[in-house]
Design goal:
about 425 residues, alpha+beta, rod-shaped, single chain, 9 helices, about 55% helix
């Protein structure tokens, strides 16, 4: 802010200095212009003196003198001639000087002149313009400082605080036209992070409690199995009926352990992320235009051939932003796991659904991995050294199903394709 205040002061000084320099220049020009007619008048008088009498000069040689008149000495007391001589012409200034030849006054020479510009008016006009420009520039800079720079300074530490997990930082609400939505978004982000943090803590607590409970419950049948096994090993059950009875008990206890394991698997496979979709309606064209606007420059930058086939604009059920999130996940996967040569988007209709097909070139995953492709935390064998958590396709499937659609994948001859099925309204 100190640098910005310095900029405001520097702007004010600049305009003040500009006004002073411009004013001095105009006044100097005005002074030079004011004396020019005297120089021209002296030239005309010298010319008449050299010729020995009054004569009309060549006005093309003079910039300010526009006309010359003469009142002879014997006509000075002629009222009519004197009135005509002394009558001032509109828009002209007059300069009079006696014409003296060899010590005799022949009469009075009148010269009418007009200055090229009214430098005083020009001076005040330019100074006013510069003054107004200076004031407006200062007001503009003050507005930018108060409405853009100051709110940004107040918010600049917020993302850093959130990244460090300090979620108690308050964000003051604002209706500012530039940062109002940003502040609201930061507040929503903080609340979402706090909610996620609380949910994760609760989930961790429940998971630990479940593991403790299950481990405790498993110990009972497991200890019984161990006792039965030791008894069998030591030959405590001699008859076949006793051994058969023990085997049935072991089988029953093993079934209890399987039930516990099944419960753990079930809990681990339940919904991991709170995925919410506000269903409505959107046009396919809006979604495609958003995808092209976002990925055309990116594909050109990384030298990936990207093409979108023709389609018939349809009104689809769902949410445009959520659908774009699905496509974004698929496109990013194509960038990471395909050969990066070609990505195409095509369209077809099937069973009342609009299908969007996204195909990327490269090596597809193995056929035996296809059934697990959309499972949470599952990563195919083709990921190589690429980082990831195996949740992208899981999220895509959950979003599509919440929009009453579906997603499926197919291995192609030269790559892999994902098919998004949207319900047509």
């Amino acid at each position: 802010m100190k640098k910005f205040n310095f900029l405001i002061g520097l702007t004010g000084l600049f305009y003040i200095a500009l006004m002073i320099i411009t004013g001095c220049f105009i006044l100097r020009q005005s002074a030079e212009s004011d004396g020019l007619y005297l120089v021209e008048a002296n030239r005309i008088m010298r010319g008449m003196e050299e010729q020995g009498g009054f004569s009309i000069p060549n006005f093309d040689e003079y910039e300010q003198i526009k006309s010359v008149d003469f009142l002879a000495g014997e006509d000075v007391f002629d009222t009519e001639k004197a009135a005509i001589f002394y009558h001032k012409k509109n828009g002209y200034e007059t300069y009079k000087e006696p014409l003296i030849i060899s010590g005799d006054v022949l009469g009075i020479v009148r010269m009418d002149y007009r200055q090229n510009v009214d430098n005083r008016k020009l001076f005040w006009f330019i100074e006013s313009v510069l003054g107004v420009a200076g004031v407006l520039s200062t007001i503009l800079i003050l507005y930018v400082r108060n409405k853009v720079v100051r709110p940004f300074v107040l918010l600049r530490d917020m993302p850093y605080e959130l990244s460090k997990g300090r979620l108690g930082t308050e964000v003051e609400e604002s209706k500012d036209r530039y940062f109002g939505k940003f502040i609201w978004g930061m507040s929503m982000l903080r609340d979402t992070l706090k909610s996620s943090q609380a949910k994760n803590l609760k989930l961790e607590k429940e998971k630990k409690m479940m593991l403790l409970s299950v481990s405790h419950d498993i110990k009972t049948p497991l200890n019984s199995i161990k006792l039965y096994a030791k008894a069998l090993e030591e030959g405590m059950y001699e008859t076949k009926e006793e051994q058969k009875k023990v085997a049935k008990s072991i089988q029953k206890l093993s079934g209890e352990i399987e039930d516990f394991v099944r419960e753990i698997v079930k809990n681990s496979s339940e919904e991991i992320l709170p995925i919410e979709v506000e269903n409505g309606e959107f046009y396919l064209k809006e979604l495609v235009e958003k995808v092209k606007e976002y990925y055309d420059p990116k594909c050109k930058l990384i030298m990936t051939e990207f093409s979108v086939a023709g389609f018939e604009n349809r009104l689809l059920k769902g949410n445009k932003d959520s659908a774009f999130e699905v496509i974004e996940n698929l496109m990013e996967n194509a960038f990471k796991y395909s050969d990066g040569k070609k990505i195409t988007i095509s369209f077809y209709e099937e069973d009342g659904c609009q299908i969007m097909k996204i195909t990327s070139s490269g090596n597809p995953i193995k056929l035996d991995e296809m059934p697990h492709l959309f499972d949470s935390f599952y990563r195919g064998s083709n990921v190589g050294a690429q980082e990831g958590n195996g949740l992208g396709l899981y999220i895509c499937r959950e979003i599509m199903r919440k929009m009453e659609g579906e997603i499926f994948a197919r291995c192609e001859e030269d790559g892999m394709s994902f098919h998004l099925a949207f319900v047509i309204c």
